[in-house]
Amino acid sequence: MDKTIATLREAVSGIDDGMTVMIGGFGGSGAPIELIHALIDRFVQTRHPTNLTVVNNNAGNGHVGLAALIEQGMVSKLICSFPRSADPRVFTDLYLAGKIELELVPQGTLAERIRAGGAGIPAFYTPTGYGTDLAKGKPVEEFEGRPYIRERWLKADFALVKAHLGDTFGNLTFNKAARNFNPLMCMAAQTTIVQVSSIVRPGDIDPETVVTPGIFVQGLVEVAEPAQEETLNRANAVYPEVVQ
Amino acid sequence: MDKTIATLREAVSGIDDGMTVMIGGFGGSGAPIELIHALIDRFVQTRHPTNLTVVNNNAGNGHVGLAALIEQGMVSKLICSFPRSADPRVFTDLYLAGKIELELVPQGTLAERIRAGGAGIPAFYTPTGYGTDLAKGKPVEEFEGRPYIRERWLKADFALVKAHLGDTFGNLTFNKAARNFNPLMCMAAQTTIVQVSSIVRPGDIDPETVVTPGIFVQGLVEVAEPAQEETLNRANAVYPEVVQ
Amino acid sequence: MNKLNPTQIAWRAAQDIADGAYVNLGIGLPELVARFQPPGRQAIFHTENGILGFGEAPAAGQEDWDLINAGKKAVTLNPGTAFFHHADSFAMVRGGHLDVAILGAYEVAENGDLANWSTGPNGVPAVGGAMDLVHGAKRVAVITDHITKDGKAKLVKRCTLPLTGVQCVTRIYTSLALIDIVDAHFVLREKLSSISLDELQALTGAELHVVGAVADLIVPDV
Amino acid sequence: MNKLNPTQIAWRAAQDIADGAYVNLGIGLPELVARFQPPGRQAIFHTENGILGFGEAPAAGQEDWDLINAGKKAVTLNPGTAFFHHADSFAMVRGGHLDVAILGAYEVAENGDLANWSTGPNGVPAVGGAMDLVHGAKRVAVITDHITKDGKAKLVKRCTLPLTGVQCVTRIYTSLALIDIVDAHFVLREKLSSISLDELQALTGAELHVVGAVADLIVPDV
């Protein structure tokens, strides 16, 4: 068994029109920029995939990564907690023009819904959001004298995730706070594709330090020196690059 | 801030009659034998605490650790998934005599209820147990055409836990499969007391490898060479030792 | 009566495990399945108490009692192991991430109901992870003797013992046959050539359906 | 009008944080609180994106963009840090493990309702972790200017903006006063000596109750 995928292109080849795709990261940290850009490359060549529902904490920043995916018109719905950033123009313009749907979810509820999707828990109760506009239409129930709302699991067809080390079985480690939503999304997707800085052999990662066990990972692709969204944005990068 | 407690005796001094106490471990692996024995020592001297509700995966083995706690008559109710072991006599005899209450919970549901207690989730739905005797009286609801039962969180006044390394902030690592229920119980108790093989300084544990962050830990006591239940039982140990 | 021994039943079950499959083996008889991985295939074994990828039992005296399986037996580690806590372990189970769970049984009904945790109100009940496994793994199989020690059917129309799960079993490896559960019917796939269909039916508590060919159940001496 | 600047409000809030407290600071003004830990006390700061125990901002050019806070600003690590994923991070929040969350506000009502995430139906709504924090931390405090830039009360009888949480705030640090919420009433604890109770009441949208002495709100030049 070896879950290595040779190319970024091949890694994103299974994502079809209309699918739900979880994309890891919190802002730029842990964002799988190269996987996203490979998906854009495919769209530029084939006009597919489109009509995607994307789950991410944010809505992109500038004109790279998730923002670029949205800018291409590939995303019809975004499920996120915080669609603001230093440069949120791409999402903001489409949203205000009514061209992209937004499901706004409190950040902790978003994380828990994804975990629930991965853990086979179809619904759970949380105090978060009770009495607010974001709880409208959700069942309310009292436990021990306190009101809670019921939230549903969130699952995806694919997860695109960034990790640090990955062995060929799919065991993963992450880099610092780039962990964030990534391990949860690995659990909640039918197919989880991970870009890692280095693919190593089984046994090269201490079993005590594995954060995501390989059972949650279906494919790995090596991106030795991944780009960082903040760095790209400080250089005013745009994807795809405009050829002069 | 330093969460170190000097002695085992002091570490268990806050546990009062009638409290719910989670005790970590799966069989003997990860079982905080020395903390349990310190609690027995207190009972032998003071006749307290008693009438405890204990949460553990099992019901003890032989005449040490949890089995010894039960044998002293300190436990009025046990919440567990598997009250069988190589030598379950202590629990079995009391149970069949109607002297100890048992709440039997499927193992995954037990783990998830404890996590829910720690994560502020008062109830969740699970397929586990649907249509069985263990689901009797529990609310049933259908999601996406499949039936689920509703389970409630589990919380405790105290958790007694065994870890490997702990820094003075309470950040913990565990040894191999001795992890099991321990990190979950750290989350779910009002006060979590941990025995560790070694107390180290903040910074001595790589932040990437912390399994239980210190926020879930209230006190640490060092037990440099902890006893292992299996080893004690192979030597037919009994606690407290019978003085000839 | 000619029948497979437990090790042979385990051998047959092992033939259906794909390379790279994530597998949970119940305590006891199912544990034998791990011994018979076909050449060129490597399954990864999950144990409820938080290990993925454990290996064989250590030599006597070499046990590490922090490294045990769900049956509390000492195990070793294969390269590529991961440790995790119980909630993550059962997220793997309940979340449908395991490819197959192979469990023992007291009774299996033709509708897929399984009874394997309680023989009734006497004694101390214990359930462990069985109720989670039956609803989590993509495929739930049972390995069992075809009949009880006192000759009663274990494959039945409706379970009489307390259920572990409803409509969860899809394949049964017995000492006499290999039977699938399809649309709440027992469908016979393989049987020992030494037993006739009528004889097998007589030892089975619900109707055996035949859909297409019934292959010979052929197992080496193991 | 004489009033505290944001840094001074933050200083006052910092005085109420105990040694060893686990603290989440909202994005923006609340972040200033971390600068003023009283001597001999060390709080441990939590950020939603999975760090406990982060430190100050790095020097310009030294940023590690995998090491950021909830506001996506670069941070550094103190000894004794831990990393964790988002579900564990919000288990800390929702599970009641944080000692205090200090948040900004558009409006706070006398019943403890807080509005701090949406100024209404225009623009793009964004909520982040605020709704989780208000129901999780043992103590939820607000730091805010006492009135809006155009002179309207931010401390009100009932919030008019979309709520973040109901009955969740128990203490408010403003540019003019320190006010507790007790039994759905504003209870004045401290005020600047330069403002009279009547003047303060005129700038407040609900009745200020006085229970015992009102201390002078004294803050250094920071």
Automatic annotation (TrEMBL), chains A, B:
PROSITE patterns the UniProt entry points to: COA_TRANSF_1 (PS01273)
Keyword terms: Transferase
Keyword 4Fe-4S: no
SMART domains cross-referenced by the UniProt entry: CoA_trans
SUPFAM superfamilies: NagB/RpiA/CoA transferase-like
Name of one Pfam family that matches: CoA_trans
The keyword Membrane is annotated on this UniProt entry: no
Molecular functions (GO terms): CoA-transferase activity
Family classification: Belongs to the 3-oxoacid CoA-transferase subunit A family.
The protein's name in its UniProt record: 3-oxoacid CoA-transferase subunit A
TrEMBL record, chains C, D:
Keyword Transferase appears in the UniProt entry: yes
Gene3D superfamilies xref list: Glutaconate Coenzyme A-transferase
GO MF entries: CoA-transferase activity
Keyword vocabulary terms for this entry: Transferase
Pfam name, any one: CoA_trans
Domain of life: Bacteria
Family as reported in the entry's similarity comment: Belongs to the 3-oxoacid CoA-transferase subunit B family.
The protein's name: CoA transferase subunit B
Species, as recorded: Mesorhizobium tamadayense
